[in-house]
Design goal:
By secondary structure, the chain is α/β, with parallel strands linked by helices. The protein is built from ten helices and 13 strands. It is elongated.
């Protein structure tokens, strides 16, 4: 797909100037062709080499500017083709004026799309969940994409909107960072202003940057990182997964490890007396989520296609691109994302911050579950806001110790100016999407609750290694495979100074572009 689009762009830089030269009376068309090759080649080079992930203001500005120029060339090409088709039935069409209008319209579309991504819209969604004890409110904020196009100013607006919504907890569902330029204390300090419990799961873009450093910044900001594990949150089994594909045979692209929902979901112990909320960056593996009895599945990744005609092409890999879907017993909600990647613009989509209200389904109630044994209080540690870590820890950081949500969690209408000195105000419009369907039966209490991990227990620190690294992940003799020949081995301790520790490239993708979302 990427190569097909690239080849079409190359063709456009011959076709468009050739037609415009004839219609507008230009003496030569080669300057347009040379310019088109320059900005397209530069954009692809920065993207595929991963230079946009560097901590460099120059490459950040270059990446954004070249992306907008590429979209201008694409829109000019589409307009020229359309004008060529209209030229035959409309023989009296003034071609010089019409071709000038095509170029002007292409420029206006790019500027309009760029302005749109400087703000976001809050969308409301409500879902009935069987077995839920009380209403729960969530802010779902995937795909913020802090990096070349967004920094502390944009994040400040997101935090202000979250606080005005007043959720029980916040989910940053992958692709929080897409450039090392965002890994600064002044950026991540913004998260400390959020007045709610916060959770983070990895997306594919966390593998294109310094992954360990991203996780360190996230934890130090007081955000709980869920690495394919379950915690109890607001009467829910909150299950947060690493970024992964549906299974090893699927081909959704952006594969960064050899993990699959089909194998990983069954490994996670859950309280059978609580409804399940699955959080995974990409909307894949719905059949496996349904098989495991997940009631709600939150995802992002697709950006809704972001820019036309991507809104059509995206369906080639992802049948579920935005909004609500009921698949079997699973309620899937896909966000278009708070930010963007690639060309910093939107056309045919909008940036959204999802405000989700889960309400008990009438006629259902949680089944009785054996009481969990009181676990001893974890040692208070000096650091991440979690038990046994390095930041000050308190009960407020522990989801299990938080007070239950109020019975009435109706939120007031959102009207957040969210202005700051670093950018325009966030869009204050609110899209309502009341969704009340849901017929999944409540879980069955089978006495296995005692085996569940404590909600506030220290989280794992390992992340799955990158499959495009030293050694073949599918080779049983490779150091990147376990004894069964299936990759997915945990990472070595990053604090180890042993000369026998594998090099960093064993687990982290060398700076490269994703070639997609």
């Amino acid at each position: 797909m990427f190569m097909a689009i690239f080849c079409l762009l190359i063709l456009s830089y011959f076709y468009t100037p050739w037609r415009l030269r004839k219609w507008m009376g230009w003496k030569r068309s080669w300057p347009w062709t040379v310019a088109g090759f320059a900005w397209t080649g530069g954009y692809v080079a920065v993207l595929r080499s991963g230079a946009y992930t560097m901590d460099s203001r120059l490459f950040s500005v270059l990446f954004v500017a070249l992306g907008l120029l590429v979209m201008f060339g694409a829109f000019a090409f589409m307009g020229t083709v359309l004008l060529d088709l209209l030229r035959l039935p409309l023989k009296r069409l003034p071609m010089k004026a019409a071709s000038g209008a095509v170029c002007g319209l292409a420029l206006l579309l790019v500027l309009y799309g760029f302005v749109r991504v400087q703000s976001f819209t809050v969308t409301r969604h409500q879902m009935e969940v069987p077995g839920l004890a009380a209403p729960v409110t969530i802010v779902h904020a995937p795909d913020i994409h802090l990096g070349p196009a967004r920094g502390a100013g944009f994040l400040k607006k997101v935090v202000a909107a979250i606080n005005e919504l007043g959720p029980d907890f916040v989910l940053y569902n992958g692709d929080l960072v897409d450039g090392n330029i965002a890994l600064k204390p002044e950026v991540f300090d913004q998260f400390r202003g959020v007045n709610a419990r916060q959770y983070f799961t990895t997306g594919n873009h966390e593998y294109y940057v310094d992954t360990r450093e991203v996780l360190d910044f996230v934890r130090n900001a007081g955000i709980r990182v869920l690495l394919s594990e379950r915690v109890e949150e607001s009467g829910l089994n909150l299950v947060g997964l690493h970024y992964m594909n549906a299974d090893l045979n699927s081909n959704q692209g952006h594969r960064v490890n050899d993990l699959g929902l089909d194998q990983e979901l069954p490994k996670i112990a859950r309280d059978p007396g609580l409804p399940d909320l699955l959080v995974h960056h990409s909307p894949v593996g719905l059949q496996y989520a349904d098989r495991e009895g997940m009631e709600v599945y939150l995802a992002g990744h697709t950006h809704g296609g972001q820019v036309f005609p991507g809104t059509i092409l995206i369906r080639r890999n992802f049948p579920y691109i935005r909004g609500r879907y009921d698949i079997g017993g699973v309620k899937l909600l896909v966000s278009q994302g708070v930010g963007t990647f690639g060309p910093a613009m939107r056309l045919g989509t909008f940036s959204e911050l999802q405000h989700i209200t889960l309400v008990p389904k009438p006629g259902t109630s949680p089944p009785p579950v054996p009481a969990l044994a009181d676990a001893p209080s974890p040692a208070e540690g000096p650091g991440t806001g979690e038990p046994g870590s390095d930041l000050p820890y308190s009960d407020a950081d522990d989801p299990a110790a938080a007070p239950p949500p109020p019975a009435d969690s109706e939120d007031p209408a959102v009207a957040h100016p969210a202005t700051d000195s670093d950018g325009p105000a966030a869009d204050t419009s609110v899209a309502d999407d009341a969704e009340t369907e849901g017929d999944r039966p409540a879980g069955d209490a089978d006495g296995q609750a005692d085996a569940l991990p404590a909600a506030g227990s220290a989280e794992p620190t390992d992340i799955p290694f990158c499959r495009e690294c030293e050694g073949s992940p599918s080779d049983p003799e490779s150091p990147a495979s376990d004894e069964s020949g299936v990759s997915g081995a945990p990472l070595p301790d990053s604090s180890s100074d042993s000369p026998e520790s594998p090099p960093e490239s064993w687990w982290r993708r060398e700076p490269r572009g994703p070639g997609g979302l």
